[in-house]
Every structure is written in structure tokens, then in C-alpha cells.
Design goal:
Length: about 550
């Protein structure tokens, strides 16, 4: 036999282990026959042999039933059979996993009276019958005056909002009945946000339930409608990317429209409808793609370390030998195909991955002409032209300068030689004319003598020469009756200064013969320099008849 102390220790250890299993339930529960009753129950058990995901099952048995082979009166295990006489009337409404083991008894019968205990199963360790915590069900008979009640437990759903719930009491044997109806008001967060679209003003809305992407063409009409189910009604808002477009009031309609009367490329992006009330919020998005033909076509020209933008029909001057990079840029959706053409021929792109780039590393004369960029997609096309003008700045200026220098030198040389020749010839001719007249000539012949002229005047016709003073004096002595060239009335006799030369201009009205005798020069004067003097009154033909004595016109230049 075991010592009494060892038995006490073993018995005490067993009790300590059982204390971890506790059940709180009323000792006695009374119910009137035919009515229902709720038995509140709470269970506690150790966390051994199970985890949070391990299911827990509870069973209510009537006292005297074997838990292994007998049938329970109620259980939450779906595949476990229960007594037929309690089926549908006894219900385990608590969740043992949440430490709730409450029992509901409907339509209580006299036979239901008795003791009941609870069993819990969870994992391999928790397999426990709470035999120390039982309750007794007492079923009383009917009375003439008593209160009747019925308990209905339910979890409301959003679809239960505004539904009616009726409790009815019917005493059919006495022909008496009564009822009361209540309307459920169920509050819930927004759910099932739906976006519908219409691409014509008179067309029906189409819910975008299975897709979050929509394609429309530029210039088209578009209506977006957002609807949300919530209670209380949610505040609705439309946003494009991060920009709020419109919103409804907190007690407004359950739908919100967004109208785009004429869709533009800038309207593309992600549209988000947000529904929110005090219980929560929900969003739904729609990606809008706007399709349109190429537009805003332009050419970006990179040359001389700068980039410029050019429109259609622009002329671009460049220097020979300069590098040039042309980039064709457009806006379109879907993206347009780009190509370059020159002189009616399509050019191969400089970069196959970017056909809009055309590079001319060294401009030559053959590059001059019209370059055309064409952009095209399924909705249309657009083109832009750029005229390239090649200039030769350095070569042109150097050539022009060289040619100008040679031309100036040549013209100057010709003029100088021409003047020398004219002066020499004139001196010779005047010298001959001064010695030609004889004493036999009459004054009339001397006065009317003129050199022959052609129909066109020459520069010789406008030249008068003052010969050497010494030679002229000798001629006057030899031919005293020869005509001379008197100075005009308005001419002044210059006073020569020593070692100084003076320049004199004398202008007369028109060319004509000399009619007076020129005064002899001073003999003290040394040999003088004589130059041709000429004037141009007008380029016109001369008449062949003898002109009237209208005076002389000439210019005289002297250096003293």
C-alpha cells in the first residue's frame, strides 16, 4: 500500500491540473413549458496541444449519456449526430473557440427536465468533460397568467437594410393572436463601387465591371457615372490623377456624374471614384486613353551648340561644312510613325530606334533643298517642310575681297593710262593748231574755224590746253594775226608765289571757238606745268552748222 502522504500529493496534483479547466454556468435554469430559454455559459481551458487555427468543438450532453457512444443534445460539429427529440430545439449558439458555450432551448418540454454537462474538444490534449459544472433544467407547467417571450438572434447584412421583422403570438385554440413589426436600419461602409460610361448623349450607360481601361477618340462626348452602395449614403468624388474634379454632398445622391462634352488629349489619365462615409471608404479607378491623329508637328534643329524649334515652311540658313541634327517631334495616340524625305526620296533614319532623327554631320552644297518630315498613325497624318539654304560665308568674302582688290587696281591703272594718253594727244593737237593758221587766212576764217566733230561728242571735244608760255610767245611773234584764247571776263589773274603751285577752276557755259587774244605771259616766269582741263556739260550730239557765238565753257587747271 502507498503511504498516506504520497496519496495526498498525487491527489493534490490531479486537482491542480483540473483547475485549469473552468466552466461558468447557472446551477438551475427554469423555463415554462412551450417557451424558450437562453443558458449563458463561459468556458476556460489551458493552451496546450493547440494553436489559434486549431478548431474547437463543444457538446452538451444530458447526464448519464456516454460521451463516446451516446448522442449529444446539441453540438457545433457539423458531422456529429444529435438526439432526435432535441433536434431543432436545442442549439449551441456560442463559439467554444471564443470561450463561449451558451445554449438556446426552444419549445421546452416536460421531458427536457434534468441535469446537463458540457464537453470540449480542441487538439490532442484538450478533451475534457466538465462534470463538476452542471446545470439543472426545470420545466414548469402552463399557468393562466404568465409572461411569454421569444428570443431571435441574427447578424444583419447590408441587404437586410429597410427590411421588416415581425414577432407574432397566436393562441389558436382560443382564437387570439397579436404581432409587432419593426424595420431594420443597417449601417455599413461603402461597397460595390461601380463606374458606368456613355459615349453618346442619348446612349445607355455601360457598367465597366470587368475592365478598368477605356479608349475614346479626340472630340468625342463622354459621360462617367459613379455609384456606391452604403448606409448612410457616402460622399462621392471624382479625381483625375491627384486633382479633385467634383464631389457630392454627404446627404446627396448615391451617384455622381462627370461629363466631358468634347474629349481632349489632356483628358487622358486615371480617373478615380471615391466613396466614403463614417464607417469606411472604397475606391474604383478607370484608365482613359484618348486616341488622336498627329498634331503640333515641329522640327528641333541642333547646330552651332544651340537648339531651335521651326514650324512648317521655314527656311534654315547654314554654313557649308557645318554639322546639323534634325529632330521631328509630334503628339499623337497611338504613337505616330516618323519618316524623312528629301527631293522626293525617303531617307534612311540616322538612328533606326528613333526614325525622327536625321543627322547631317557635314553640310555640302548638294544638301540644299526641302526636307520633309511625315508623321502618320491609324487616325491620320501630318507633314512639315524645312528648306535648307547653304551659304559660303568665308569663301564668298575672301573671293569678293580679292576680286575687289584686283578690280580696283585694274580700273585705277586704266584710268591713269587713259588720262596720260589724253593729255599727251591733246598737247600735241593744240600745239599743231597753234602753228597752223597763216597770214593769208582772213579773220573770218580764223574765227569760224573749228575742228571736225562727229555726231557723238568725245572727251577730246571738252579739253582745252594752255601751252607752254615760251612757245606761245614765239608763235604770237611769228603769226601776229593768229587767233588767241582770251580768258573769260570773270577769270582772275593769280598772283604766283615763290615755290608754290596754285590750282584754278574756270567754268564757262558751253564749248565754242576762242574769240579773243590771250595776254602774253610774263617772261620772268620759268617753265610751267600744263595739264588738260575738261568739262562735261551734257552728253548730246553736236550740230554740224557753225554755232552762234555763245561764249566758251571749259575748265582750266594751272599749277604755278
Amino acid at each position: 500500500m502507498l503511504p498516506p502522504l504520497l496519496l495526498a500529493l498525487l491527489w493534490g496534483g490531479s486537482q491542480a491540473e483540473d483547475l485549469r479547466f473552468q466552466l461558468q454556468v447557472p446551477k438551475v435554469v427554469r423555463v415554462q413549458e412551450g417557451l424558450c430559454v437562453f443558458v449563458s455559459c463561459t468556458v476556460f481551458y489551458p493552451p496546450d496541444g493547440w494553436i489559434d487555427s486549431t478548431p474547437a468543438h463543444g457538446y452538451w450532453f444530458k447526464e448519464g449519456t456516454h460521451t463516446g457512444t451516446g448522442l449529444p443534445v446539441a453540438t457545433d460539429k457539423q458531422d456529429r449526430e444529435v438526439h432526435i427529440w432535441t433536434q431543432g430545439r436545442f442549439q449551441l449558439v456560442g463559439n467554444p473557440q471564443d470561450k463561449n458555450c451558451s445554449l438556446l432551448i426552444r419549445d421546452a418540454q416536460k421531458e427536457d427536465a434534468g441535469m446537463y454537462f458540457f464537453r470540449l474538444e480542441r487538439g490532442n490534449y484538450v478533451q475534457f468533460n466538465f462534470m463538476q459544472s452542471k446545470f439543472y433544467l426545470e420545466v414548469t407547467g402552463t399557468r393562466l397568467r404568465t409572461s411569454h417571450f421569444s428570443v431571435l438572434t441574427l447578424t444583419p447584412r447590408p441587404q437586410d437594410h429597410n427590411t421588416e421583422l415581425t414577432c407574432r403570438v397566436d393562441f389558436s385554440r382560443r382564437g387570439v393572436s397579436t404581432e409587432r413589426t419593426v424595420r431594420l436600419n443597417v449601417d455599413y461602409a461603402p461597397k460595390t463601387v461601380v463606374i458606368s460610361t456613355s459615349q453618346a448623349k442619348a446612349s445607355a450607360l455601360e457598367p465597366q465591371a470587368n475592365t478598368a481601361y477605356l479608349e475614346v477618340q479626340k472630340g468625342q462626348f463622354l459621360l462617367l457615372l459613379c455609384a456606391a452602395d452604403s448606409e448612410p449614403p457616402a460622399t462621392l468624388s471624382w479625381a483625375l490623377e491627384d486633382r479633385i474634379l467634383s464631389w457630392s454632398g454627404p446627404l446627396g445622391s448615391r451617384t455622381l456624374e462627370l461629363v466631358l462634352p468634347v474629349v481632349k488629349p489632356g483628358d487622358a489619365g486615371r480617373y478615380t471614384c471615391r466613396a466614403e462615409n463614417r464607417l469606411g471608404s472604397q475606391n474604383r479607378a478607370l484608365d482613359l486613353s484618348v486616341q488622336y491623329a498627329p498634331e503640333n508637328l515641329r522640327v528641333l534643329v541642333s547646330h552651332a551648340n544651340r537648339t531651335e524649334s521651326f514650324g512648317n515652311g521655314t527656311s534654315l540658313p547654314v554654313l557649308e561644312g557645318q554639322s546639323l541634327r534634325l529632330l521631328c517631334v509630334t503628339q499623337s495616340n497611338p504613337p505616330a510613325g516618323l519618316s524623312w524625305a528629301w527631293g522626293g526620296q525617303t531617307l534612311s533614319p540616322s538612328q533606326p530606334s528613333d526614325p525622327g532623327v536625321l543627322e547631317l554631320p557635314r553640310i555640302q552644297t548638294e544638301h540644299e533643298g526641302e526636307f520633309i518630315c511625315r508623321a502618320q498613325n491609324a487616325l491620320g497624318s501630318q507633314h512639315i517642310s524645312l528648306s535648307l539654304c547653304v551659304h559660303y560665308k568665308k569663301r564668298f568674302m575672301s573671293t569678293a575681297f580679292s576680286n575687289g582688290v584686283f578690280l580696283g587696281v585694274g580700273v585705277t591703272t586704266l584710268l591713269f593710262l587713259g588720262f596720260i594718253s589724253i593729255i599727251v594727244k591733246t598737247l600735241r593737237k593744240k600745239g599743231t593748231q597753234a602753228e597752223t593758221p597763216t597770214q593769208a587766212e582772213t579773220p573770218t576764217q580764223a574765227e569760224t574755224w573749228r575742228p571736225k566733230v562727229s555726231r557723238r561728242s568725245t572727251i577730246l571735244d571738252y579739253i582745252n590746253v594752255v601751252p607752254n608760255a615760251g612757245a606761245l610767245a614765239r608763235n604770237r611773234k611769228a603769226t601776229p594775226s593768229s587767233p588767241s584764247w582770251p580768258p573769260p571776263p570773270d577769270a582772275h589773274s593769280p598772283k604766283p608765289k615763290k615755290n608754290q603751285k596754285e590750282l584754278h577752276f574756270v567754268i564757262h557755259s558751253s564749248p565754242g571757238p576762242k574769240s579773243a587774244t590771250q595776254a602774253p605771259e610774263s617772261k620772268n616766269n620759268q617753265e610751267e606745268l600744263h595739264y588738260a582741263a575738261f568739262s562735261f556739260p551734257g552728253l548730246r550730239p553736236w550740230e554740224t552748222q557753225a554755232p552762234k557765238d555763245t561764249g566758251s565753257e571749259y575748265a582750266e587747271i594751272k599749277f604755278h
